Amino acid sequence: MFKGFYTAGSGMIAQQRRTELLANNLSNARTPGFKEDRATIRSFPEMFLARMDEHSLPTQHPLHRKGLAPVGKLSTGVYMQETLPNFIPGSLLATELPTDVALVDIFATTDAETGEKGTFFFRIEGPNGEEQYTRNGSFALGPNRELMTSYGAYVLDSNGDRIQLTSDDFSIDQDGRISETGQVLGIAFSQNPSRLVKQENGIFIHPDGERLLDISQEEVNMYYNIQQGYVEGSNVDAGRTMTDMMTAYRTFEANSKVLQAYDRSMEKAVELGRIN
């Protein structure tokens, strides 16, 4: 009986966490470069149930042998194993601001073992000087006219240096070259982007602290375009996300009703125990 409480309760917890994840996706549906998170829900290992039994052997003197008679398997509940970002590119949104830059994937290699397609990122400088990565190209000019992200991180060029401009009159070509300084926007490439760790503000970091390959000046068989005056929109499908939230809510509600049914059954058992 008590196993049913744990099974239904684990289902409620998993759906609550999934609802929170979907709500975060929906709240960032208009955040430039945001990559939606997807949850993977798995079942706990099943328990094998058996009944203790006793068999009589046809011998001259009565002989009894104890054994186990299989009953079946019992599920012990589910849990949300992990969340993985979806790196499908978002649509381009025109802003006509010179500091807004969109990174467009043209061709990226696919991993032969996992079938995962690689992804390009802007290189940015973290608060402790470490290298971080983002798809959010909504940049701005800092106090000293450095090219920065909207949350205050420095944008790096292909050499890992900060980009400092002298005026607002500059252009960036499709290869990422800045007309005013001659610097090239640093573009990193990850063959397995799902291994990256997602931080707040749409930032990604390497789990081992390593730097990704900068391909903005490398001769590789991968192509991208830089579009000035545009930003990459979020890849969240608001309609589908709302539908998934309703499904998660109904699943949560169904588990809660099962929990209530177990609770009423336990109340009846207590009442019978008192009568006896």
UniProtKB/TrEMBL annotation:
The keyword Thylakoid does not apply. PANTHER family: FLAGELLAR BASAL-BODY ROD PROTEIN FLGG (PTHR30435:SF19), FLAGELLAR PROTEIN (PTHR30435). Transmembrane segments: none annotated. It is found in: Bacterial flagellum basal body. InterPro entries: Flag_bb_rod_N, Flagellar_basal_body_rod_CS, Flagellar_FlgE/F/G, Flg_bb/hook_C_dom, FlgE/F/G-like, LlgE_F_G-like_D1. Keywords: Bacterial flagellum, Cell projection, Cilium, Flagellum. It comes from the Bacteria. GO terms for cellular component: bacterial-type flagellum basal body. This is Flagellar hook-basal body protein. Residues 118-179 form the Flagellar hook protein FlgE/F/G-like D1 domain. Residues 5-35 form the Flagellar basal body rod protein N-terminal domain. Residues 227-271 form the Flagellar basal-body/hook protein C-terminal domain. It holds the Pfam family Flg_bb_rod. Belongs to the flagella basal body rod proteins family. One of its GO terms (biological process) is bacterial-type flagellum-dependent swarming motility.
